[in-house]
């Protein structure tokens, strides 16, 4: 298996991200995030859970220094995110923090998948052989060498998603932000991704994954942060603590009291044929 360990030791000491009183409003009006206080340490595997519109993607964009908070402050890898968002030291920052967007069409802009995956390493000024090595590794990680020469626009949604992830992996960032990585993936591809996340985490990378799919949460996280529909943090705990808190999940619109929550936890336990609860 390719080497996917942490390369930078410079930020290993303190928190990776520190958010104090962070708010974000689009166009100064629509409040997406409100009063976020959060500390993220190196090597954590975090799932950001929240209903549609709860601010997950907005929070990932803030952590990636794409946008600056409209109130409060974020320090990321020792840098002020507002400065990164203004372009200061942004290239160096994005060698270390990579975001896979929710919409792969934003990430893929080249003529072929290979060109997209090679883009980051070429920007780093690596030699042709190093670029080739990184591309081969990233394509293999996502199990997509067979689509390397295809045009992104002619791929299926799931193929695009895997290509977009490969284009971030090729930079070998130590912090990887994934926005809904398993959405619309078939079971085998979903497993490829869960397995990848587990291996990246085992190699010391920091992973922050936004999702509202509860079934993968215990497999890919050791800490779960729950956002309310008002863009506030309403839960922060282990997967067991959060997934066991039915009232919290209902309040955050992650399960519905009138829908059978079979998918929440039942799949991590064998069915009890005696309980008579699940119809055959
Ligand atoms: N470009 C934008 N302009 C204006 N409002 C926006 C924009 N992007 C997001 N919003 C609003 O900000 C809020 C948070 O959106 P965000 O995309 O962060 O939520 P999310 O948790 O990622 O949702 P989803 O699960 O649907 O991806 C929503 O109310 C949304 O309508
Ligand atoms: Mg989103």
Give an overview of the whole structure.
The chain has 280 residues and is an alpha/beta fold. It has a domain at 43-66 and 88-256: Rossmann fold (3-Layer(aba) Sandwich), CATH 3.40.50.300. It is 35% helix and 21% strand. The chain has 12 helices and 10 strands. It has a 6-stranded mixed beta sheet with strand order 6-7-8-3-9-10, with helices on both faces. The longest helix is centred in the C-terminal third of the chain and has 16 residues, at 187-202. The termini are far apart. The model is unreliable at 1-12 and 262-280 (pLDDT under 50). The protein binds adenosine-5'-triphosphate and magnesium ion (MG).
Share in helix: 25-40%
Strand content: 15-25%
Q: Averaged pLDDT, please?
A: 88
Any idea what the CATH superfamily of the domain at 43-66 and 88-256 is called?
Answer: P-loop containing nucleotide triphosphate hydrolases
User: Compounds present?
Assistant: adenosine-5'-triphosphate, magnesium ion
Number of strands: 10
Tell me about the largest β-sheet.
Answer: 6 strands, mixed
The CATH class of the domain at 43-66 and 88-256 is: Alpha Beta
Enumerate the spans where pLDDT stays under 50 for 5 or more consecutive residues. Answer: 1-12, 262-280
Q: Order of strands across the widest beta sheet?
A: 6-7-8-3-9-10
Rg from Cα: 19 Å
Q: What would CATH call the architecture of the domain at 43-66 and 88-256?
A: 3-Layer(aba) Sandwich
Structural class of the secondary elements?
alpha/beta
Which word captures the global form?
globular
Task: State the CATH topology of the domain at 43-66 and 88-256.
Answer: Rossmann fold
What separation lies between the terminal Cα atoms? 42 Å
